[in-house]
Structure formats: structure tokens, C-alpha cells
Amino acid sequence: MSTLNAPPVSRALPSAEMPAAQERSRGYWTSALLRFRRDPVAMGAAVMVLLLIMLAIVGPWITPADPYAASMLKRLKPIGTEGFPLGTDELGRDMLSRLMAGARLSLFIGITPVVLAFLTGSVIGILAGYAGGMTNTAIMRTVDVFYAFPSVLLAIALSGVLGAGLVNSLTSLTIVFIPQIVRVAESVTTQVRTRDYVEAARASGASPFTIVRVHVLGNVLGPIFVYATSLIAVSMILASGLSFLGLGVKPPEPEWGLMLNTLRTAIYVQPWVAALPGLMIFITSISFNILSDGLRSAMDNKS
Amino acid sequence: MGVRRSRMGVSYPSQHPCQPTTMLAYLLRRIAYALPIMLGVALVCFLLVHIAPGDPLVSVLPADASVELQAQLRELYGFNRSLPEQFVMWVWRAMHGDLGMSIASNRPVATEVMVAVSNTLRLAVVATALGFLLGCLFGFVAGYFRHSWLDRLASMLSVLGVSVPHYWLGMVLVIIFSSQLMWLPATGAGPGGSDEWAWNWAHLQHLVLPAITMSVIPMGIVARTVRALVSDILDQEFIVGLRAKGLTHLDIFRHMVKNAAPTALAVMGLQLGYLLGGSILIETVFSWPGTGFLLNSAIFQRDLPLLQGTILVLALFFVLLNLLVDVLQTLLDPRIARA
Amino acid sequence: MSLHDDIGGPAQPLLSIRGLQKHFALKKGLMGQGGGVVRAVDGVDFEVLKGETLGVVGESGCGKSTTARLLMQLITPTAGEVIFDGCTVGSRDLPLKEFRRQVQMVFQDSYASLNPRLTIEDSITFGPQVHGVPRREALARTRDLLARVGLEPARFAERYPHELSGGQRQRVNIARALALQPRMVILDEAVSALDKSVEAQVLNLLTELKAEFGLTYVFISHDLNVVRYVSDRVMVMYLGQVAEIGPSDALFSQPAHPYTGALLSSMPSMDPDHRTEEPPLAGDPPNPINPPSGCRFHPRCGLAAPVCAQRMPVHSLTGPHHMAACLVHEPGSGHPRAPLAPAPAA
Predict the structure, then answer these.
(1) Contact B52/A281, CB-based, under 8 Å?
(2) Residues B196 and A287 sit within 8 Å (Cβ to Cβ)
(3) Interface touch B165/A240, C-beta < 8 Å
């Protein structure tokens, strides 16, 4: 073999190369969460989102008055009226109660399409990204056609065609968001697929399904998830917008967008009461946006 | 809603950069690629409308219409043919500028749509320009003075821009400026019918509130993009080199504009497209007689030809705008053709 | 210690490559420009004997890494055969999954080779578990291997790749390759990215492991000194073909192919008696899309004759187990320096 004589090297590493003994190993999500905790604005937004979600869950049960109780005598009372701290709407119902009860429906129609799109879009996108070739081309060209529509247009066209109603607007919004998630999923999966550790996994004889499960998913779902959270704010505004146009939830359900619609004519009579539901949408949207931005910064540092 | 990069095939190894044939080939390829997309868009439009439940003629016919009358109308609108036939006929006619007749108003769809498009364009162009200017300003300030309080403030403004429900913002502006202060009108596009327009104050005053409302979203997105661009450019090492050579701030600014312009303009172009297609909510609030308004009435009157025609025109505008943006970007930055 | 039964005995080569080819097609432009084919690997024949270390050298772009991936079947060859211990890979005698258990690879980029989301332990146990080894046994094997490559299991098993240095990660990659108890390991520039001192340690580790586990190595590198240190035989590649292959000492002291000679002369020398003077390789680096006609090296070769542009040389024996693809050594080739063809038997 070799003619050069190398001094025998002991197998143990020199002590300088040892990692610090005290620190526990941190996984990917743990270190991202820790970084997130250090950002005060993002934490504030996270708290807000948590409050809103709690409101959505328990809201209808803790309202001070019945959100459906109408009274033509008490129509459009201003903010600060006795017994109606935020005034009443055009049918005399207590605004505070309706706003609280409306959180459930508004958040539901905002978040659900994104969740559904995340689930279906990820599967399609990861498939397109890992399979490559003709499968990829077929899927991505189809996605391109849907991408050729501005999202608002597509959502309204779909809603208009399917008709008003909760399920229909959920369907149309999900369809609008799926192509966006597929794009992100495919892009990230294609990047990961060419990494050496995936090649090494193929070299050890694993089936494509196992490789995707063990190596691809963990590296891909993070970025897709962060992208999906950035869609929630858009979805909320769009979903409430559909109700605002009369294409979403039907009266008398309390939903912030719908409330804006029915109170539109009241802006000359009780402007600030009429503007309240939109304020709720705004607060929710901003909180989700800041939360999603914060998540992205926390994840970006590592990857 | 960021910038889209066109995807080209991998080249190995890369060909010589600035050859005109490469650019021309890229452009031709890009244009040729848009054609199947447009066909796909037409297909989706058509399918959208025809999978709707319900008989399309229901909105037009009186309840006691005779069978012959029904058959006549069906024949007239072509509803009795098979779907593929209807699709081909519709596309063929559309290519010649005939989008059918509106069931509700009995006027040609093409005319109605074009009038509405011109109204929306006016609004959208002004809104985009305004949003772009403000967005560039905020974005530049945020990126240049990174991590300072200016950055935080400007970034906060852009987040606000993106998060605000624009239809609500419209309502609030109407409350403040129309109802309370009475400075500006609340609805409509001005005196006279929807196809009359003049650039005088009588009309412009109607434009102010809707344009401001509409400009908020592009402002937010452009600000975010410009901030990232400026930040990236500042990070590059050759800036340090340039400073070492003694360049003034003004020169660096000019340099930054040159580098950031292609992407920023691309984003602006895309935003214009989104506003064109997505104007319905704001137009509803301000009763602005544009495409959104038309879409709204088409939906509620179940006027299928009008609905189909409007969606098609809006989507095609968007595709063409995307194409234009891609082409312009390539002309400004030849590296993309090579990529 | 390999558990796999030796099929053909020590005389049979472990790996036999015949006529291996890999062509990449280029996309044609809209106007018909572009197109063409990159001949990354263009007709490669060689053997890897049991228990040896075969070094593979050549300039960037000569096809070394592509060949490695073709051997591992990570990319499918355009043509050619890969025969492992007498069985064709992918046939019923040797299904692909079984082949993958017997041949493993260590890559150049130690960080990119490890999944950043998995602990070291999980990365190493993945392979055995794919082949049906129960988790407890796989874990035991992992800890054992970590100790053998010099990483204390208690400290390292639950770490993540980003917490380790380059040399440590490469040791992990080696442990991962050995976890499947392979018979052959392909090392694709495995030490090229490491600092010199770490490189020496890892090389010594590889040598020890080879003796202990009875492995066969294919060692790809562009560093001639390292290749000389570890290899028994060396193969020199140029533009997708084998230029020369032979015993390490013979090849380095008496290179038969002009390209090998040029490569060796370009090594900086510490010996004042043998100074490196002019750059021995002239001409432009090769283009794999449009290779030169005839012998591919002829535009840059100091010994080129007109016939070199016309005829593609075949492998000619220039010494015991030593072959070069050069017309100079091919009897009757027409090159002024070539020996005459042997007279036909009467």
C-alpha cells in the first residue's frame, strides 16, 4: 500500500474539538420558538391572536346580551348607551354581543380555507416537486392557469357562480389558495430533492415514500407552514369581503363582514357604530400578519 | 403576492450572455407560452359559469313563458348545444370581439365591459401610481435607515397597508370626508352617465377617496419589496468598495435606483393587474361604475353572458399585463434570459 | 467483518464496468440553437479488485463524480454494464436494493450530506432500518460505529449536524456509510473540503476501517498527493474517458499517458532537484459537448501526431496491470513513436 509512514493517530478526538458539554441539543422548532420569544412585537401579536381564538371559541356563550334579539325601538343607538356599551345595529341588536359572537364565524371562514388549502396544496406540491418530469409539468401548468386570475376575481367569480352561503364561500376560497400553496410546496421540495442527504437516502435503498416521509417532509413543511400563516390575514379579509358583498354568510348570523354590509346605509346616522365590525377585521388581520412575519424571521435565521 | 420569475429550462453550460438571439428566443418563447395560458383561462371562465346550478334562462323568462318561447330563447343564446360546442363558438366569437348579448340589459357585452374597463382603469392607474410613489418612499426610508426607528415606523405603515380591509377603509374615509367634513362626495364617478368623463374637478373629486383607498394595498406591498431590495443592495460588498472610492450618498442612491428599478416596476405592474381584477369591493363601496360594479350586477342578476365576458376580459388583461411585465423586466435585466 | 458472502472468490473483481456511458441532452432553443449532447461519461471500462483502493483522478469536468453516481445507480446510465461480484446490478441475482446495501458512498459536502432536522443517531440508523434491522439493534450498531470513528456516542449521538465541525461530520458520514455493512465504499472527494490536519486524521481513520472491515474503496480526488498516499491502483480520467489505469507506484513514477505526465508535472514540488517550471498543459480546457475528434487529448498533447486527430486510441498494455489509452503504446497505430504491429502468425 503506501510507502509514507504516518504517525499512528489515536481514535479519540483531541479535546479541543469536543462540543460544549452543558448545552442540550436543540431541535429546529425549539430554537425557532426561542428566537420568536425574544421579539416583543411578534409576541404581542401572538397574544392577540390567542385572545381572538379564545373569543371565537367561547364568545357566543359569554355575550352580555342575546346577539339575535332585535328591537325596532332601539335601532342604531350610539356608543356608550346604557345597557349597550357599543351601541346597537340597524335592527336594534346589541353591537358588543354581536361582535363577540361574530368572532367565531369570522375566524372560522378566514382560517378554514387556509387549513384546507395547506393540507391539499402541500400534498399536491410535494408530489409535483419530488416526482419531477411529466407529473411536475402537468401539475404546474395547471396551477399556472389558475394563477393567471387575480385572487379576488377568482374568489368572487367562484362564489358568484356557486351561490351565497357558508360552505360555498369556504369552497371558493380554498380553491383560490390551493395554487399558491402548491407553488411554494413544489419550489421548496424541488430544492430539497437535490440535496446530498436525499441522494444519500436514495443510495441506502429506501423507497421514495420512505424518503419523503423521513427526509423531505421535515424540511419542507416548515416553510410551507410559514407561508400559509401569511395567507390567513388575506383570507380573513377576503372571506369577510365576500359576506360584505352578500356572497358569503347569510343574515341573521353575526359575522363581521356581513355586519359591515348591513350597516352600510347607517354610516350617515351612526358612523362609528357602523365602522366597528371592520375594526375587528382589521385588528385580526394585523395580528395574524405580524405573527406570520415574526415566524418567518424566527425560521429564516436557521434555514 | 410578490414578484414572479418565469421558469426556463436548465441550460448546461450557459450560452454567451448578451447575444440578441438569446433574448429574442426568450421573448418569443415567453409570448408563445402565454397563448395556452389564455386558452386555459378561457376554458376556466367558461366552465366556471356553466357548472353553476340552475337554469341560465330563469332570470330572464317570466314564470309562465310558453314552451316555444323558452325554446326560441335557448336557441338564440345557444344554450341548447353541447358544452364543447358552446365553448368553441364562444371562443371563436370572442376572438372577433363579440362577447354575446347581456341578458339583463340587452346591450352587447363587449360594449358594456369596455366602458366599465375604462372607468376602472382610470381608478386603478391613479391608485397604483399613488401607491407606488408612497411605497417607494417608505420602502427606501425603511431600507436605508435599517433597524432605526424610521425603519420600524415605515415598516409598520406598510404592514398596516397590507392588513387593512380596504372596503372598510373606504367606509371610514367616506365617514370622515363625506359625511362629517363634507369635503368630498361619497359615491359615483361624477355628473353625467358612466361613459362620460372629463379631467376636471367635478369628476376628479369623485376619484380622490376611491383612489386613496385603493392605493393602500399596493403601497404596502411595494414598500415591503423596496425595503428588501434596498437592504439587499446595501449588504452587497461592492457598496463598501464604492464608498471607499469616495462616492457620495447621492451616487449610491442613483446606483440603488438603477438596481432596484426592474423589480420594483415589475411589482407595480403586477399590482395594477390585481387592482384591475380585484376592484369589485371598493367599487361597491363607492358605487364606482367600473368592472367590479358590473361583475356585481352580473352575479346578482345571473346574467351569464355578461359574467362570462367580464371575467374573461379581466383575466386576459391580467395575463397580458404579466407578459408585459416579464418582457420589460427582461429588457431591463438581460440576466433573466440567461437564467 | 462484512456479513455478505463473497460470491466469486478473491480472483473475481468486485466491480466490473463495461462501456459505461452517460449523455445529457441539452434543450434546443426556439430558433434551433443550442441542443447537442454533453458526453459526461463516454465509454468507460475498468475493474475494481477485492480489497484494494482504486484512486480516481482527473481535472474538474472529466466525469469522475458522474462515474461515481453511475456506479451507485443514482443516475441511470445511457449505456453500459455494472457488474458486482459477477452479478449484473438490477437483475434477479442482484436487485437494486440489495446492491445498495453492499455499496455505499461518502460525499464531498459534509454538511449537505446530513439532514439538518435529524439527530446524528437518526441519520445513521435510517439505512439499517430501511433494510429491516429492528430499531434497538440499529441503535446499538450506530453507537458502536460512532465510537469506532472516534466520536463518543454519549456526547454525539443526540446532536444535530450544525453543532459539529466539518471533520466530525465527515466521520458521521463514514459511520453512516458503514452502518449498512457494505463491501465497497465510494469516497467522492470525501476529504477535499477539510482542513489539512483534519484530512490526515480522516484518511488514517479510513485506512484503519478498511483493514478492520475488509472493505474495498474507490477514492475519487483531484489531490494527487492524497491519492498516491491511499491508493493501490490509480485510474486517470480525461473528458469522460479513461486515459490510464495502473498500480499506484508505477503510474506515479513512470506515467504512460501524456496527460498523466502533464498532471504529475503540474504538482508543485518541494524538491530543488525537480523544479516545476513551465505549465505542462497547453491549450483550452475541454468542452464536453464538442469533444475533439480522435484522441480527446490531442489538442493539448506534447506528443501529438496527425494520426491522433483521426483515430480513437484503445487501451494498450504498457506494463503489468498497467494500461494507457494512447496511440504511442498501440502497436501499428501509425504514430511515429508507436512500436510496429507484431507480424501475423505464419
Answers:
(1) no
(2) no
(3) yes
The answer to whether A126 faces chain B, any CB pair under 8 Å, is no
| All residues at 6 or more sequence positions from B129 whose CB lies less than 8 Å from its CB, including other chains | none
**Smallest CA–CA distance from B28 into chain C, residue:** C30
**C-alpha pair distances (Å), A79 with each of A91, B12, C83:** 15, 69, 85
Of C75, C93, C74, C69, which Cα lies nearest the Cα of C83?
C93
Chain A: residue whose CA lies nearest to B178: A268
Block residue for cell numbers 409598520 = B156
pTM over 0.80: yes
Q: Is the ipTM of this complex over 0.95?
A: no
* Minimal C-alpha gap between B165 and chain A (Å): 6
Considering only CB atoms, which chain C residues are within 8 Å of A13?
A: 150-151, 168
Nearest to A281 among B41, B165, B276 (CB): B165
C230-247 residues labelled b (16+ CB within 10 A) or e (exposed): bbbbbbbbbbbbbbbbbb
Cβ neighbours for A184, distance < 8 A, ≥ 6 positions apart? A125, A223, A224, A227
Write out the H or E segment, with its range, that includes residue B147. none
The C-alpha of A285 sits at a distance from chain B's nearest C-alpha, in angstroms, of 5
Which of C24, C26, C29 is opposite residue B25, by nearest beta carbon?
C29
Give the three cell numbers for residue B261: 428599478
Among chain C residues, CA nearest to B22: C29
Cross-chain residue pair B175–A271, CB shorter than 8 Å: yes
Handedness of CA B245, B246, B249, B251 (dihedral sign): negative
How many Cβ contacts (< 8 angstroms) between chains A and B? 133
DSSP strand pairing (C103-106 vs C184-188): parallel
* Segment A96-155, tens digit of pLDDT: 888 888 899 999 999 999 999 999 999 999 999 998 888 998 999 899 888 888 888 889
C96 contact partners, CB below 8 Å, separation of at least 6 = A205, C73, C89, C90
pLDDT tens per residue, range B70-105? 777 677 666 666 778 878 888 888 888 777 777 777
Q: Which of A57-61, B60-64, C15-19, C53-57 has the lowest mean pLDDT?
A: B60-64
In the three-class reduction of DSSP (H, G, I as helix; E, B as strand; rest coil), residue C276 is classed as coil
Q: How many CB pairs under 8 A join B and C?
A: 23
| pLDDT per residue as tens digits for the range C77-104 | 888 888 888 888 888 888 888 888 899 9
Q: Are the Cβ atoms of B165 and A274 closer than 8 angstroms? A: no
Range B190-198, long-range pairs (CB < 8 A, 24+ positions): B194/B115, B194/B116, B194/B119, B194/B289, B195/B115, B197/B118, B197/B119, B197/B122
Answer whether A286 sits within 8 Å of B52, measured CB to CB.
Answer: no
Mean pLDDT over C124-139 rounds to: 92
Cβ-based burial of C279 (10 A; exposed 0-12, middle 13-18, buried ≥19): exposed
Q: Is some CB atom of chain A closer than 8 A to the CB atom of C167? A: yes
DSSP 8-class letter at B79:
T
Cα separation, C43 vs C74, in Å, equals 18
Burial A62-94 (b: 16+ CB within 10 A, else e): ebebebeeeeeebbbbeeeeeebebbbbbbbbb
Instruction: Count CB neighbours of C137 within 10 A.
Output: 12
Q: How far is CA A147 from the centre of its chain?
A: 19
Query: A40, A48 in Cβ contact below 8 A?
Result: no
**Distances, alpha carbon C246 to alpha carbons C6, C10, C329, C334, in Å:** 25, 19, 14, 24
C213 contacts chain A (CB < 8 A): no
Residue A255 near residue A240, CB atoms below 8 Å: yes
CB-closest option in C26, C29, C33 to B12: C26
**Which residue is associated with the grid cell 461480484?**
C85
Residues 206 through 265 of chain A touching chain B, CB cutoff 8 Å:
233, 237, 240-241, 244-247, 260, 264
The answer to whether the Cβ–Cβ distance between B15 and C24 falls below 8 Å is no
